[in-house]
């Protein structure tokens, strides 16, 4: 019984982790062709008009210069859909 219960708990933890991972992926927006002057705060401010931004990150090279793309994570998936509809 103990082994079976342990297996059930491990399975439940994996399922919960998968759920959160999928939710995070769905609410994450990839933004490309960014001007090199854009930083994390400007990115958050720009996309904050479309919903609650939980994080905004401009990807940078090892020397600190922008790679020209970044990610914006919203609190809910519907906000990502609204951004895509508005900007496309």
Automatic annotation (TrEMBL):
Keywords tagged on the record: Repeat, RNA-binding
Single GO molecular function: RNA binding
Cross-referenced Gene3D superfamilies: 3.30.70.330
Name used for this protein in its record: RRM domain-containing protein
Pfam families found in the cross-reference section: RRM_1
Domain of life: Eukaryota
Protein's organism: Apium graveolens (Celery)
Limits of the RRM domain: 27-88
